[in-house]
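Take a look at my tokenised protein here and describe the backbone shape.
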Amino acid sequence: MLLSKTSEYALQALIYLAAQPSGEPVLSRDISDYLHVPAQYLAKILQDLAKRGVLDSFKGRGGGFVLRPGAGQMNILDIIEIVEGQPFGQGCVLGLKACADETACPVHTQWKPLKAEVIDLLGRQTIASMAEAVMAGRYRIHLAGGAQLHIRPAPTSSNGFS
């Protein structure tokens, strides 16, 4: 749709992590298995989010990823900008190189007010509020292959591996 796969996977993983018990690391493999996304791709996304201050990463036994304090208050636009390296909506909806009021594409004038509404909506949705809504059963996130995201605690084992 409007977001890249990287942004979609980042948001799904952050919602999942926000729903976990605070401070308990979750392995990227467990997240990718649960979300049905490629493990190596998600691991790279999570590592990038850790480098950019959204997640803490712990290596070794009991390692994994956790949301950094305050990261749950980040909104969708914040995450998109971190993941994509530019603010949402900067490009042309048709993918043209030059699209502005002065050099408008065929849908620019119709898209501009809708884009403003989308940006407002995405700016109001925080990671924490989305995780709370999913945990409360108000929403389900439909994943690739028809699966649905029902938040549950991450698997744990006695040796720290799953």
